[in-house]
Amino acid sequence: MIPYLGRRVMQSLLILLGVSLITFALLYLLPADPVRQIAGRSATPQTVENIRRQLGLDQPFVVQYWHYLMSLLSGDLGRSYIQRSEVTELIVSRLPASLLLMVGAILCELLIGLTMGLIAAVKRGTTTDQTLMVASFVGVSAPQFVVGLLLLYVFAVRLGWFPIGGYGTWRHLVLPSLTMGILGAGWYARMMRSSMIDVLRQDYVRTARAKGLARGAILFRHALPNAILPVVAMIGIDIGIFMGGIVVVESVFGWPGIGQLAWQAIQRVDIPIIMGVTLVSAFAIVLGNLLADIVAPFIDPRIKLR
Amino acid sequence: MSAGVTSRPTGAATSVGSPAGRSVLEIAGLCVSVRGEDGEREVVSDLSLTLKRGETLCIAGESGSGKSMTALAIMQLLPQPAARISSGMIQLGEIDLATLNERQMQRIRGDRIAMIFQEPMTSLNPVLSIGRQLTESIEAHTDLSSAEARRRAIEALKAVRISEADSRLKQFPHELSGGMRQRVMIAMALALKPDVLIADEPTTALDVTVQGEVLELLRDLQREHGTSIILITHDMGVVAEMADRVIVMRHGRMVEEGKVADIFARPRADYTRELLAAVPRIGTGAGRQDLGQTIPKTLNQVALVDDLHVGFDLRGGFFGQVNRRVHAVEGVSFSIAPHETLALVGESGCGKSTTAKALAGLVPYQGDIVIGGRNLSGLGRDERKAVRRDVQMIFQDPYASLDPRMRVGDLVAEPLLIHGIASKQERRERVATLFERVGLSADQMDLYPHEFSGGQRQRICIARALALRPKLIIADESVSALDVSVQARVLDLLKELQREFGIAYLFISHDMAVVENISDRVAVMYLGQIVEMGTRDQVFSNPRHPYTKRLIEAVPVPDPAKRRPRFARLDQEIPSPTRKIGEPPPKLTLKDVGNGHLVAAS
């Protein structure tokens, strides 16, 4: 276990290094000039040059990247060009909101997706199964901003059950989590269904029935833990998809997380923030996958981490 | 519950008709039908049988005979929603099982009728501990506390002779061997002392020496508890070994019923006679002329394998370095002459299939493989491909080794296509000839694999192997998956082809009786090495290595009059071929004990 973790952490660091290099290079090659954005349209060429030198943007790429990397090692993500504050602080202040949203979304997708998949598998071939699968297909294919606006219209504007936007109470959390979760729920429902159908055909399920166990015990003790494994692996990958979704959903619901931060930064070519958010997202994805791999042996004793 | 236990001496069927022989289970007019694409089809028709207390009733038959469906019908575990009991009754004591609903049936299953299945590797849940799987059925049927259930579970494990039962409870199925898993299954089934135990091919997936132990165990437990057993099997050897009474089934109907001695000595139905005639028996292969001695050693060998090693590295540690190695094949040497059949026998994991794969070029190896006088390791890619044309393979599972989306004619023509031989028209003609040669008709060429039976598919595989006119055919358990009657015909075909084309066979099998029927020479493998090699007569009439002796003794004899006394129990598991790097297994040296009969010093 310890050597495994050591190796995985090393691998993760290398991945993060790669992500930082690629993002940095892409932003360097970007035709949009951050200095122009900062200086404004009326600035003289002299001012522009001064700002450029101040920010160190006149240096060659390798030097710039090296400086960035060095400060990164001391935990410094640099200063925002526009907001005049530390990127680390900005991200730290907004991260809890995004994490909360992510937890809410994962709960929604697991709760809705797994339940739907389970019922569909047990009722395989019936109208219930077909209805659930059509629903999951809609969930998978509907764009998030459409789902978000639809939920807002029905549950906030028409019914008034939940606030229209903002952040603070659990009521604020429901609609954004649902919006994020519905996409994943569709995937999980389909995956759970096929995984469960496969497991229900296994010999050990027949053995369980031959022992005279009740339906519930067969389903939840024997079938579910076997069926859920591929889903757990999926959660790790899902965090990557969340990071994309968070930008859209936080904008729709005015949720003060890093998604909104990223959106503003992209509009203003605020490179340090874009870099910071990208790295944090990459870190979350790497961590999510690592956690999924670590959890797997607890569900399936045949899996050994080495 | 075990009041009427009959103490039954092994080798005789005394419980039938004895005062204790009250019936436990009665089936009358049972019909099971399965709904398919073209309507309902009966898979069990009008079956009636009686099972008496403490007796073993064997239901014997080939695939598709309805024997497993009968078992599943008794348990009400027929595959849903396609199959159902269409009529008949299944009387357990005063209860007609066919009329019970699911909830009532749950109380019967596991408690009064228990069942064990063929595949011990997949019949236990991989994510639950042995203990959990044992106690849950006890808890489901009794009011025992979890501590008491645990005690019962330990007792049950001890009853099936599992050592250190206490600590075994914490283990998971993948930590146990196949034989151990089947014993756990038996422990689970017998923990609640059921009236009836249904065992559906309980030893078919096990190695022959393990099979002996498991059968022995079932007999002992039956004697202790007085359980009635319905044993479903295709193996007439197992029937002869275990049964008091036998029911022979075919196409869903009972063909014959009788005491085991009568069935074997005086079969009344033609089908039973055919079935018994097709069973391979050790001692009948002697009719075949012994080529082993007539072929001089100097003759050109088709294939020569010298000091073959195949290992698989396992990685571990911080940087994922290689730290252990599976020594699958360790210094195996043999040669095969034209017209000759060399059999490679041994139990699962002994390296026989890996040896074959190395010879066919499917795994990397060390050592020398010389085919038709050319050493493969010295050749370039194209030359190697050309040499390999002379070696073809027939695999075990005819269902899995044919691409379901290709027409069988194209499948047989594929080797010709790969090696760029013949024009399209010529290929078709050659395939047609091949089809006829292996006993199929040329107009079947445009059909797809699923339209053929298992035996026919294996014929297609043989035709494919023959397409390149190879000098050597490797048959890896090629008849193991077939019913005995089909098996006998396929073996005959192989022998005919050998006479006609002079093909040499490397025949890999775990079935000693089949090997005795087809081979000229035999090599016995154990843990990656050959422990004994010689002509068929040398190995079978005068086995010298203890492992060879065990293998031959373990084969159930299809004759109830020759029931073995007790089968020696193996007290330890077969050691693992996985070893640390730098610690290769000790090498065995083969000694000639006369006329080329090689035996490892033990």
UniProtKB/TrEMBL annotation, chain A:
Compartments (UniProt record): Cell membrane
Topology in membrane: Multi-pass membrane protein
Record-linked SUPFAM superfamilies: MetI-like
GO cellular component: plasma membrane
TM segment ranges: 12-30, 99-122, 134-157, 169-189, 227-253, 273-299
A Pfam family assignment: BPD_transp_1
Cytoplasm in keyword set: no
ABC transmembrane type-1 domain boundaries: 95-296
Keyword annotations from UniProtKB, A to Z: Cell membrane, Membrane, Transmembrane, Transmembrane helix, Transport
An individual GO BP term: transmembrane transport
Family: Belongs to the binding-protein-dependent transport system permease family.
Protein name, as recorded: Glutathione ABC transporter permease GsiC
Organism name: Mesorhizobium helmanticense
Organism taxonomic ancestry: Bacteria, Pseudomonadati, Pseudomonadota, Alphaproteobacteria, Hyphomicrobiales
